[in-house]
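Key result, reporting period 2: structure in, sequence out.
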């Protein structure tokens, strides 16, 4: 199992949690972004830069992800594509996307897009909080405990 990170919008604190997990569990973590990223020196952590463009990083993650891999992303369509390849997807706020809940997430995303396109201010997501950090760390630990080989 590998962990792939949709790194362009991933909070730095989530990356730090992933870096510690990579070292502790000796699991490969790859950050994919359309800009250069700094990563700590480690044989378990790498960064992959893709060309700039809409959803280029997402497409590269979908191309590379294998069954059983974990993808860290807040991008719901990317999460759906990962689930279709029998991978797993966890958002940076600690929610695991599943085949049972991804349809609801996609519907809500589409509804919010329609509201925004009609001029309604939907406010956007809340700022990333300490509670979000703890929720992510706990969800990652649970996932890794359940899926360690």
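The corresponding designed sequence is given below.
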């Amino acid at each position: 199992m590998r962990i792939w990170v949709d790194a362009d919008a991933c909070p730095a604190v989530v990356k730090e949690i992933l870096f510690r997990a990579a070292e502790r569990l000796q699991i490969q973590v790859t950050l994919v972004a359309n800009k250069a990223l700094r990563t700590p020196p480690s044989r378990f952590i790498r960064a992959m830069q893709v060309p700039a463009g809409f959803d280029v990083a997402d497409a590269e993650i979908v191309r590379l992800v294998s069954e059983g891999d974990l993808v860290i992303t807040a991008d719901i369509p990317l999460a759906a594509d990962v689930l279709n390849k029998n991978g797993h997807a966890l958002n940076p706020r600690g929610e695991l996307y599943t085949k049972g809940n991804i349809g609801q997430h996609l519907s809500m995303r589409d509804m919010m897009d329609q509201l925004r396109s009609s001029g309604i201010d939907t406010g956007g997501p809340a700022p990333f909080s300490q509670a979000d950090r703890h929720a992510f760390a706990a969800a990652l630990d649970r996932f890794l405990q359940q899926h360690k080989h």
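Helices lie at 12-25, 56-64, 76-84, 102-117, 130-147. The chain has five helices and six strands. This case is discussed further under Risks and Mitigation.
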